[in-house]
Amino acid sequence: MSKKLTSRADDYSKWYNELVVKADLAENSAVRGCMVIKPYGYAIWEKMQAELDKMFKETGHQNAYFPLFVPKSLFEAEEKNAEGFAKECAIVTHYRLQNDPDKTGKLRVDPEAKLEEELIIRPTSEAIIWNTYRGWIQSYRDLPLLINQWANVVRWEMRTRLFLRTAEFLWQEGHTAHETKAEAIAETQQMNQVYATFVENFMAIPVIQGVKTESERFAGAEDTYCIEALMQDGKALQAGTSHFLGQNFAKAFDVKFANKEGKQDYVWATSWGVSTRLMGALIMTHSDDNGLVLPPSLAPNQVVIVPIYKSDEQLEAITNVVNGIMNDLRGNDITVKFDNRTTHRPGAKFAQHELQGVPLRIAIGARDLENGTVELARRDTLTKETVELSNLTEIVKGLMTEIQDSLYNKALDYRNNHITEVDTFDEFKTVLETKAGFISAHWDGTAETEDKIKELTKATIRCIPLDSKDEDGVCVYSGNPSERRVLFAKAY
Amino acid sequence: MSKKLTSRADDYSKWYNELVVKADLAENSAVRGCMVIKPYGYAIWEKMQAELDKMFKETGHQNAYFPLFVPKSLFEAEEKNAEGFAKECAIVTHYRLQNDPDKTGKLRVDPEAKLEEELIIRPTSEAIIWNTYRGWIQSYRDLPLLINQWANVVRWEMRTRLFLRTAEFLWQEGHTAHETKAEAIAETQQMNQVYATFVENFMAIPVIQGVKTESERFAGAEDTYCIEALMQDGKALQAGTSHFLGQNFAKAFDVKFANKEGKQDYVWATSWGVSTRLMGALIMTHSDDNGLVLPPSLAPNQVVIVPIYKSDEQLEAITNVVNGIMNDLRGNDITVKFDNRTTHRPGAKFAQHELQGVPLRIAIGARDLENGTVELARRDTLTKETVELSNLTEIVKGLMTEIQDSLYNKALDYRNNHITEVDTFDEFKTVLETKAGFISAHWDGTAETEDKIKELTKATIRCIPLDSKDEDGVCVYSGNPSERRVLFAKAY
């Protein structure tokens, strides 16, 4: 725990991996590509879940739970969706182990217990859910159907990284059904906005809302809306997506309804999700060479209090004062922990809380008791100040807001300074190599150009921003006409 | 929705299956043995989760998340545990589908994408968790380690029933590590007590706490504590278990710690869990021939208000009054829903809310407005009364407590009337066939007798109650000496 992290300047990727492990967020498991989310990391995820769940319910959604398994015949019903996930899905073929007949003490798969039909572990649940919706939807009275599921999914990725890309991950997936195309598109947009609001207000990460190009769309979607964030190393990260699925799944699973005129029609669909990947975005947006930096909204402990004492009497006197402080702070909905462990010295405690990103540290010693003061240390700015005990609660309340806002504004400044308009491909390549970030450039709208640029630079079109203006120009690569700029970046 | 349920007297099992589906709790899915938990059923489960999670945290536990998969070599490391689950586990053998070379448009498992080592889908997580704990525990300072996980697990059961026994189910599993045997046993007992408190106070289901016989123990445990409930048909249901695992998993996964004297020792372990099976217990304890009966503590809507009106003006006047009622009730933490759907008549609404077990229904019509009254209908007793609007909030608050208590007491009376002491095997068989319930009888302590009784009667030893008294007697089957009575029953 006490060893220093690799600095971001030295090796950003190594810094990230070390931080995740040393700050007790997650670690690799014995299963290839699957992570263990440790209690401290999970506590942050729980806070994200609680807030998102509240926002989903406020917009009329209900939770439900659908099976982990998708029979192969259902999985392949929506062809594009199946093709998109076929290359990375875990497949259950047997349902029993038997003792090895060679008496080696090992178990082996029982060849007699082969499933008639293979089961795919859900990489996403459209297939199993739309197969279920067929039984739930008969009439327009059954619509809209607004459902969310919190679940684990599996995508057999070859290159994995803690939180950012793991074979199993946790997420939520909304699956809604609507009477009209317009209503489904409005839902798609609404949920993308919910994600943007959550990520900006709670995670303190500015995002750009946009739509994906055809080749970057979700497999089976007619349109994919997204929120794109920029990490400190100038690479983009897709933080959430919301898909307008048209009638593709309704047709594949034969989900029709009687509309108000009594005519049968296929249902319109959306799906939308965010995952434990958000943890990666949180870490890479705010943290520094000393470790994690958490926005107060998502910190399991917003404040930690460390006593500095030389005798049991001093500790007792400090504890009395701390009990009062904790009562006041908790009465103001601030989560606070008194780190009175006797097994660790103050220096070790400071280092740990810094590494774990606790937004505010209060140190209180014998002299503070005499003076009626405490020492505050902000994690985000690494600044300290001595303040009057009598004003402490108000000061802490103010700091919670200030730190939250300051983290957002710092990230926003960085992001805004890293959107570069370019008009030539040379410029494009130079900016990508020297400055990185988002590159705003004209594109001719073809998948060929998109592919070629990706091949040459590794940059992809992150999105066509929702607020992009009409602007005549020529494609940065092909020179063909273009009507608006899109955002390119290298991405996680 | 409007068709009557099969009565319990006619066919208890059919009544249960119909109720689960018609009350919108769950349904069977396209995957053999796996269920879909519908929004209304899931809302009840969420309430259970929230309360249990609070109780776990209050007793010092933290949540974390471990992989869905267990590599076969880890799965088999603790031999008894592996043997216990080997016959019912789903096995992942491949990680990719490919297009069928015969161009049938179907996908098939890619034979090139065979895993080097098979992955077992967790039927329980001791193996993957204890393999992880090895890296987390070095010294007594790392103990106790008190962790819980909310997750899905898979057990490939051949005969499944909604909630009671499904191939995939949702649960929580606590996994703790301790310095001493005594501390681990105390944890095992504490968590069994937490389950008993939850099930009695929130689910209004009386339980008997006890320990399992050796043959009914969790595979790999040294002792299994349990809570046993009695369903309305006289069959027992194991509602939760808490296991003292000794040092079995520590030894299998080599988890040692330096104790306070600096000596290396194996860690002592517990695990404990409850699952969506609790939903089955809830349904079968309180519900009646009209449908679900929910205790107020777990009802998604504690109160539903149905307007009775003949004109839009009447509905408007009623709505004004209802808004005031809802404000008052919500201010008292009572969840209330105004069922102002125009697509359904009052009679259909009454039937639906009765079927779905809403504890209290308020009907309010034009005459009520004139008289300053409303009509209350209790779901548990099916009784109605007209009360003054001015006292409504106090009356409803009182009824919430009264209904909760009344459901518990009714279940307790039934349970207590169905514990029968018998001293001969003839009596044993007669009681089992005529009255069912728990049979309190002497047993000689051998697995042979236990097996024989099970074979002859289908009754198993549910538990040795914690409060059972020393009492000399002779085994009801073998006539051999016995020191205490145990509880037998047929069970779910």
UniProtKB/TrEMBL annotation, chains A, B:
One of the record's GO molecular function terms: proline-tRNA ligase activity
E.C. number(s) listed in UniProt: 6.1.1.15
Reaction(s) catalysed (UniProt annotation): tRNA(Pro) + L-proline + ATP = L-prolyl-tRNA(Pro) + AMP + diphosphate
Pfam family, one: tRNA-synt_2b
InterPro entries from the UniProt entry: aa-tRNA-synt_IIb, aa-tRNA-synth_II, aa-tRNA-synth_II/BPL/LPL, Anticodon-bd, Anticodon-bd_dom_sf, Pro-tRNA-ligase_IIa_arc-type, Pro-tRNA_ligase_II_C, Pro-tRNA_synth_II
PROSITE patterns: AA_TRNA_LIGASE_II
Sorted UniProt keywords: Aminoacyl-tRNA synthetase, ATP-binding, Cytoplasm, Ligase, Nucleotide-binding, Protein biosynthesis
Enzyme's top EC category: ligase
Subcellular location: Cytoplasm
SMART domains from the UniProt entry: ProRS-C_1
Keyword Ion transport: no
Record-annotated membrane-spanning stretches: none
Alphabetical list of SUPFAM superfamilies matching this protein: C-terminal domain of ProRS (SSF64586), Class II aaRS ABD-related (SSF52954), Class II aaRS and biotin synthetases (SSF55681)
Location of the Aminoacyl-transfer RNA synthetases class-II family profile domain: 27-295
Ligase listed as a keyword: yes
Function of the molecule: Catalyzes the attachment of proline to tRNA(Pro) in a two-step reaction: proline is first activated by ATP to form Pro-AMP and then transferred to the acceptor end of tRNA(Pro).
Quaternary structure and partners: Homodimer.
Entry similarity comment: Belongs to the class-II aminoacyl-tRNA synthetase family. ProS type 3 subfamily.
Domain notes: Consists of three domains: the N-terminal catalytic domain, the anticodon-binding domain and the C-terminal extension.
Protein name, as recorded: Proline--tRNA ligase
Organism name: Jejuia spongiicola
